[in-house]
Amino acid sequence: MTILIPSYEPDERLISLIHHLKEVSDDSILVVDDGSSEEYRGIFDSAKQAGCTVLTHKMNQGKGSALKTGFDYVRQQGGSDGVVCADSDGQHLPEDILRLTKVVREHRNHIVLGSRQFTGKVPLRSRIGNSATRMVYALATGKPIQDTQTGLRGYSSEMLDWLCQIPGNRFEYEMNMLLEAPHVGYDLVEVPIDTIYLDDNKSSHFRPLADSARVYYPFLKFCASSGFAAILDFVLLFLLQGMTSNLLVSIIGSRLFSSIFNYTMNRKFVFAKRNGTAIRKSLFRYFSLVIIIMLLNYGFMYLFHENIGIPLIASKLITEALLFSFSYWAQRKIVY
């Protein structure tokens, strides 16, 4: 088993973690210096002296890039066991890291997550950030997990080719991994670990605005595509309703045109795959979903507008809000 530690401008906690791991395990330790400045050279030299392999990026490329450098190195060395990734800031206990190595050996072709339980004193930004990404991941996949942002993760060697191909070079890489895993047949295993935040997590290099935008980018793209399609749907609905005074005809007509626009945007920009999902399959699935959502749309609109008497605009807004999460989950899980 290889313990992979991506590191950018670490402190002595990295060396402390390495020494503790050496005391309790014979697993090899691979450290990737992600372009740290020269003043940190002594720390990485100490890691080498402790028996670690150290790979170096000439400039900072991001955590995702550092992880892929490590995965590629293990792949080239022919490692047949697996890799457990840990952060360099002392927030993963050696005993938790070793627990993951055991679970990786028992669960081949699984992503093993060291899931924090977020009990005790947790920095507010970490608590809010993890809650938000848990919600986004549950909406995207229909499968809730405890900790989407954990840096303590394990993988068997059969997964290394796939891990090197996942898009993303910074913190979004780990979210992309979780989003893509169900589509290639990799399940998740969660292992509870201690929640440790040192100095209110001040050592983290996570940039709240820039990196959060990268993490949520797949979901934001879907929101943008759906938003433009919704505007088109709204305009056509009211135009057709004014022309025909028939709610069913108006809904069918507006949804037909807006769904063609939405399918094109989602297939090209939101759920695009490098290997490409066959147009014929995704087209059939998408418009099957359109029919289901259109029937639900009509049912809710008829209930709210015709039966209860809620104005058309308000009925439309309520209906779309109810169906938005279902549509995202179905397209991510089934269509693309």
TrEMBL record:
<dbReference type="InterPro" id="IPR050256">
    <property type="entry name" value="Glycosyltransferase_2"/>
</dbReference>
<dbReference type="InterPro" id="IPR007267">
    <property type="entry name" value="GtrA_DPMS_TM"/>
</dbReference>
<dbReference type="InterPro" id="IPR001173">
    <property type="entry name" value="Glyco_trans_2-like"/>
</dbReference>
<keyword id="KW-0808">Transferase</keyword>
<keyword id="KW-1133">Transmembrane helix</keyword>
<feature type="transmembrane region" description="Helical">
    <location>
        <begin position="310"/>
        <end position="330"/>
    </location>
</feature>
<dbReference type="Pfam" id="PF00535">
    <property type="entry name" value="Glycos_transf_2"/>
</dbReference>
<feature type="domain" description="GtrA/DPMS transmembrane">
    <location>
        <begin position="221"/>
        <end position="335"/>
    </location>
</feature>
<keyword id="KW-0472">Membrane</keyword>
<dbReference type="GO" id="GO:0099621">
    <property type="term" value="F:undecaprenyl-phosphate 4-deoxy-4-formamido-L-arabinose transferase activity"/>
</dbReference>
<dbReference type="Pfam" id="PF04138">
    <property type="entry name" value="GtrA_DPMS_TM"/>
</dbReference>
<keyword id="KW-0812">Transmembrane</keyword>
<feature type="domain" description="Glycosyltransferase 2-like">
    <location>
        <begin position="2"/>
        <end position="128"/>
    </location>
</feature>
<dbReference type="InterPro" id="IPR029044">
    <property type="entry name" value="Nucleotide-diphossugar_trans"/>
</dbReference>
<feature type="transmembrane region" description="Helical">
    <location>
        <begin position="286"/>
        <end position="304"/>
    </location>
</feature>
<feature type="transmembrane region" description="Helical">
    <location>
        <begin position="246"/>
        <end position="265"/>
    </location>
</feature>
<keyword id="KW-0328">Glycosyltransferase</keyword>
<protein>
    <submittedName>
        <fullName>Undecaprenyl-phosphate 4-deoxy-4-formamido-L-arabinose transferase</fullName>
        <ecNumber>2.4.2.53</ecNumber>
    </submittedName>
</protein>
